[in-house]
Amino acid sequence: MLMLLLTSTVGKEFPNFNDSVITSLCAEFLNGAIHTTTLAIDHTMVLLCEHPEVNQKLYREIEAIVGRRVVDESDLPKLPYLSAVNRESLRVWTFGLTTIPHATSELQKLGGYDIPTDAVVIFVLESFHLESTHWSEPSIFKPERFLENDLDVLGTKNFSFLPFSAGRRVCPGSQLAMLEISVVVARLVQTFEWEKVPNVKNLGPEIESVFRARPRSV
Ligand code: HEM
Q1: CA 40 to ligand 1 center in whole angstroms
Q2: Out of 25, 80, 120, 129, which could bridge 91 as a Cys pair, Cβ 3.0 to 4.6 Å?
Q3: Per-residue pLDDT reduced to its tens digit, 18-45
Q4: Where is 115: in which H helix or E strand?
Q5: Between vectors from CA 90 to CA 85 and to CA 95, what angle results, nearest 5°?
Q6: Binding site residue list
Q7: Does 32 contact ligand 1 (Cβ within 6 A)?
Q8: ipTM attached to this prediction
Q9: Could you tell me the residue ranges of all domains in the chain?
């Protein structure tokens, strides 16, 4: 990306992209990328420790499709349960809690309210994901629900699932994030046996360092 930005200034394609703009764009991408993706992987591993039956099912899928070879990007389309686990994890523990502030470009009606032009609007993404009209037992981690629907991560269907927000300001890193999360989670499940540390109760998104892993005996 840095190369693209630098090339575009050299070619005078985007004259406003000076060094300062490029530096802050890189910082924004790094900030937006690192903590989010690692947190998503962290959450998924905690959920898998909480739900050993899901962990087992995922391990069996990877073993059947990929075998002993290390999972790579080209395997992902053949691993539907992995995709379901990762999407369900982003739904049930939505950590990008809100969008960044947006503004209305014209008068809008929403839920019976008039939202005036230029109003600052922030969407609480978690509320879409825990909405019982869209999701049965919304607070339960159940990856199977994503085998029965074809909801992508971009909120393009019915605004029931939008971990990366939706529309023109949707997270620009969504595809990269899903790729990284999928490959890392698959490799962690493939390589280690995961279990909850004994006597730790109520694992939740705010708790850290409560699971452990040991290499699988292969
Ligand atoms: C699981 C991982 C991630 C989640 C859940 C996530 C979620 C989000 C959300 C909810 C927004 C706000 C969108 C809005 O206001 O409508 C956002 C913005 C953004 N994200 Fe991500 N993100 C993730 C990973 C990444 C990655 C990997 C990158 C970069 C490679 C990235 C770069 C950005 C940037 C630059 C913005 C600001 C976009 C703008 O100003 O229009 N994010 N992200």
Answers
A1: 13
A2: 129
A3: 888 888 888 888 888 888 899 999 999 9
A4: strand 113-115
A5: 150
A6: 171
A7: yes
A8: 0.98
A9: 2-215
CA angle 115, 100, 47 (to 5 degrees): 120
Binding residues for heme: 171
87-136 confidence digits (pLDDT tens): 999 999 987 778 888 999 999 898 899 999 999 998 899 999 999 999 99
CA distance 38 to 194: 17
Q: Which two tokens stand for residue 53?
A: 């039956």
29 pocket-lining for ligand 1 (C-beta < 6 Å) = yes
CA-99 nearest atom, ligand 1: 15
Question: What SS3 string covers 75-112?
Answer: HHHHCHHHHHHHHHHHHHCCCCCECCCEECCCCEEECC
Identify which of 112, 72, 70, 98 has the alpha carbon closest to the alpha carbon of residue 162: 98
Tokens of 216: 């699988």
Cβ distance 56 to 81 under 8 Å? no
Distance CA 83, CA 95 (A): 18
Residue 123: helix, strand or coil by DSSP?
coil
How many angstroms separate the CA atoms of 67 and 64, rounded? Answer: 6
Q: Which of 164, 170, 181 to mutate to test the pocket of ligand 1 (most atoms within 8 A of CB)?
A: 164
3-state secondary structure of 121: strand
DSSP one-letter string for 166-215: -GGGS-TTHHHHHHHHHHHHHHHHHHEEEEEPTT-----TT--S-EEEEE
Are 59 and 166 in contact by the 8 Å Cβ rule? The answer is no
